[in-house]
Amino acid sequence: MKKLIVVVIAVIATFTTFAQKNKMHRADSAATIKLKYSCPMHADVTGDKPGKCSKCGMDLTKSKKEHMKMHDDKNFVCPMHADVTSDKPGKCSKCGMDLTKSKKNI
After folding, report:
1. Are 5 and 26 within one domain?
2. DSSP calls for 19-37
3. Which one of 1, 22, 52, 97 is least enclosed by Cβ atoms within 10 Å?
4. pTM of the predicted model, to two decimals?
5. Is the separation of the CB atoms in 86 and 100 below 8 Å?
6. What angle do CA 88, 35, 85 make, to 5 degrees?
7. Three-state DSSP class for 99?
8. Is the domain of 41 the same as that of 28?
């Protein structure tokens, strides 16, 4: 009977330990959703808001990942002009063709 109680306590302790680690992992991943800015010349200089680089004084710009995220929101693109994108269907401003569903989002 004592062995059973010890095993049950060990199992409960194990589950609570893993549950706490899982909660911490989710909190860390939620924190990475913030916008990241970096210096174009010094990749190690980053910030969570626009500002100046501490090494060279250049403006911090959105990181490449942030640019990729911004372009993922565009669901429609012109078949002839890839730079013409929109988040809703419509016509291309350059050639007048219908915008088609982006291949990335199909």
Report:
1. yes
2. HHHHHHHHHHHHHTTS--E
3. 1
4. 0.34
5. no
6. 20
7. coil
8. no
